[in-house]
Write a structure and sequence with these properties.
Blueprint (H helix, E strand, L loop, with lengths): L1 E3 L2 E4 L3 H12 L4 E4 L4 H6 L5 E2 L1 H9 L4 H6 L1 E3 L1 E6 L2 E6 H5 L4 E3 L2 H14 L4 E2 L3 E6 L7 E6 L2 E6 L2 E4 L17 E16 L9 E3 L6 E7 L2 E8 L10 H12 L11 E15 L2 E2 L2 E3 L5 E2 L7 H22 L3 H4 L1 H23 L9 H15 L1 H12 L4
Parallel strand pairs: 1-12, 2-3, 2-13, 3-9, 6-15, 13-20
Antiparallel strand pairs: 4-8, 5-8, 6-7, 10-11, 11-12, 14-17, 14-18, 15-16, 16-17, 18-21, 19-20
Helix pairs in contact: 1-6, 1-8, 8-10, 11-12
The structure holds adenosine-5-diphosphoribose and P-hydroxybenzoic acid (PHB).
């Protein structure tokens, strides 16, 4: 079966779904192909920090109602080190900007519901997606759906299929330059059914390693701790997880509430960028072309920022034939990508115990850096403006 559309989008994560919605608003046809089931993508637990710019865009797109009802606006964050907490006041330091805590899977749920509402083509459980002819003026996406071989002829292919997708691999060898760093630690993340122990996020530096207190709702706490990248989940029974969290977060007058752990996972820490973000009629966005360690809470926000630039370029191309914005897509996005890579690398380097720090020299430097960030208005402003989202 052969069909035609203007933009073939591979992947129904934040990048693919936001792009699909923006294009719909611009009157541009698109088809979204996703190889997992709807239930799977809507239940996949990921991070949950939305920059001011992402929040504003979701509202502008008309998919922000539930986020506004259920999302939690945070006007600051705590940095905890040396057993003491220090608040970074985003609103005061950035002229009123803040973040919103709202799970990535909730954003995905809202976008899928909106797309199905306006009848936007979205196929789940597609198999064997093959981008072809991306160097021609008429690329094609071949795939199987419900055991039927199908062909989607497009003007443009948007590769929004994440780090392990097929689109980046469709770029001929040698055409991409890859920059990668694997960090010598990972994050053990849990979701616990207990009221959060703090109204805001706590980024904690401790001799035993990093820990993060985050949340999903007044009943759900999200916690992370630095672990060895080769650790297996069964080497972390509940008692050991809670004992480690209590030790790392320890400070006078505060305690961490425990509750049933309903979800857990170990996430490797990687910094990754492939350049350029475009090859022929294939445009790559989000995790398909860059990965940031989660310490800066930037993954989702960077994916949304990419497709915002791409949608503007596609609107100009389809309405006037002018490809200038599309030609600038990669360079425009890479400026933000590398700013964000730097911020995520900086936060990760400042807050995690380095396994090779045998004499504690790095830990001393980290504590001095944290003290500077929390005592210098210039340094805390730098953290705040990066965290709420750079206005590039
Ligand atoms: N065919 C179709 N769909 C695919 C394929 C494929 N071959 N491979 C992957 N996908 C789908 C995945 O199932 C997923 O739903 O592409 C989607 C990619 O979504 P994400 O991985 O969420 O990537 P992105 O939309 O770029 O969002 C980045 O996601 O992983 C987090 O931390 C990351 O927050 C960041 C955000
Ligand atoms: C989360 O809430 O899952 C979260 C928050 C901040 C981060 C990473 C993840 O830096």
């Amino acid at each position: 079966m052969s069909e035609r559309t203007q933009v073939g989008i591979v992947g129904a994560g934040p990048a693919g779904l936001v792009l699909g919605h923006l294009l719909h608003g611009m009157g541009i046809e698109a088809v979204v192909l996703e190889d997992r089931s709807r239930e799977y993508v809507e239940r996949r637990i990921r991070a949950g920090v939305l920059e001011q710019g992402t929040v504003d865009l979701l509202k502008e797109m008309g998919v922000g109602a539930r986020m506004e009802r259920e999302g939690l606006v945070h006007e600051g964050v705590e940095l905890r080190f040396g057993g003491r907490g220090h608040r970074i006041d985003f609103v005061a330091l950035t002229g009123g900007r803040a973040i919103t805590i709202y799970g990535q899977q909730e954003v995905v749920k809202d976008l899928i519901a909106a797309r199905l509402d306006f009848g936007g083509p979205l196929l789940f459980e597609v198999e064997d997606v093959r981008p072809e002819g991306i160097e021609s003026g008429s690329p094609t996406l071949r795939f199987r759906h419900e055991a039927v071989e199908r062909e989607l002829r497009c003007d443009i292919v948007a590769g929004c299929d994440g780090h392990h997708g097929v689109c980046r691999d469709a770029v001929p060898a040698g055409a991409l330059t890859v920059h990668q760093r694997d960090w010598p630690f990972a994050w053990l993340g849990i979701l616990a059914e207990v009221a959060p122990s703090s109204d805001e996020l706590i980024y904690c530096h401790s001799e035993r390693g990093f820990a993060l207190h985050s949340l999903r709702s007044p009943e759900l706490t999200r916690l992370y701790l630095q672990c060895d990248p080769y650790d297996e989940l069964d080497s972390w029974p509940d008692a050991r997880i809670w004992e480690e969290l209590h030790t790392r977060f320890a400070t006078d007058g505060w305690s961490l509430a425990e509750g049933p752990i309903v979800e857990r996972g170990i996430t490797p820490m990687r910094s990754f960028v492939a350049e350029p973000m475009q090859h022929g009629r294939l445009y790559l966005a989000g995790d398909a072309v860059h990965i940031v360690p989660p310490t800066g809470a930037k993954g989702l926000n960077l994916a949304v920022a990419d497709v915002r630039v791409l949608a503007e370029g596609l609107e100009r191309f389809f309405s006037t034939g002018d490809q200038s914005l599309l030609r600038a897509y990669s360079d425009t996005c890479l400026r933000r990508v590398w700013h964000t890579q730097h911020f995520s690398w900086w936060m990760t380097s400042m807050l995690h115990r380095m396994p090779d720090d045998h004499d504690g020299f790095q830990a001393k430097l980290q504590l001095a850096q944290l003290d500077y960030v929390c005592s210098s208005p210039a340094a805390s402003t730098s953290l705040a403006e990066n965290y709420v989202g750079l206005q590039l």
